[in-house]
Amino acid sequence: MEVLQFYPCLLKSPDNRCLMLLHVDDILVVCDDDFLGNQLLKTLNLKNKVSAEVLRSVGDSLTFSKRRINDHGFQRENHCLSSPKAF
């Protein structure tokens, strides 16, 4: 992951498949299902215990930075919004 120069709390993967917003111990991620399951969560779980909430369908919701985010129309095929939390 590389840090965006003018926004140090934003990171992106070199292939642009993933964008992350970091806030203290919360991470908000926009990526496709394949990247989330096969790369990101596997890597995070190597050294941390993490849990993740995922928006996959209209009506789904997740918590980021103590706020509830609802899916009101976020529907791109094979994409998800995830909030892994390190414990």
Helix-strand layout with pairing:
Blueprint: E1 2-4, E2 7-12, E3 18-23, E4 26-32, H1 33-47, E5 50-51, E6 54-55, E7 61-64, E8 67-70, E9 79-82, E10 85-86
Antiparallel strand pairs: 1-2, 2-3, 3-4, 4-9, 5-10, 6-9, 7-8
Structural write-up:
With 87 residues, this protein is an alpha+beta fold. It has one domain (2-86). The protein contains 1 helix and 10 strands; from the N terminus they run ββββαββββββ. It has one helix spanning 33-47, and strands at 2-4, 7-12, 18-23, 26-32, 50-51, 54-55, 61-64, 67-70, 79-82, 85-86. The strands form 3 sheets. It has a 6-stranded antiparallel sheet with strand order 1-2-3-4-9-6. Strands 5-10 form a two-stranded antiparallel ribbon. The mean pLDDT is 80.
How many structural domains in the coordinates? 1
Our Rg estimate from Cα atoms comes to: 12 Å
The helix/strand order is: EEEEHEEEEEE
What ranges have pLDDT less than 50 throughout 5 or more consecutive residues?
A: none
| Terminal residue distance | 21 Å
DSSP strand content: over 45%
Counting DSSP H or I runs of 4 or more residues, the number of helices is 1
> What number is the mean pLDDT?
80
Helix content bin: 10-25%
User: What kind of sheet is the major sheet?
Assistant: 6 strands, antiparallel
Number of E-type strands: 10
**General form:** globular
Give the strand order of the largest sheet, numbering strands 1, 2, ... along the chain.
Answer: 1-2-3-4-9-6
Look at the helices and sheets and give the structural class.
alpha+beta
How would you concisely characterize the structure shown here?
The chain is built from 1 helix and 10 strands; from the N terminus they run ββββαββββββ.
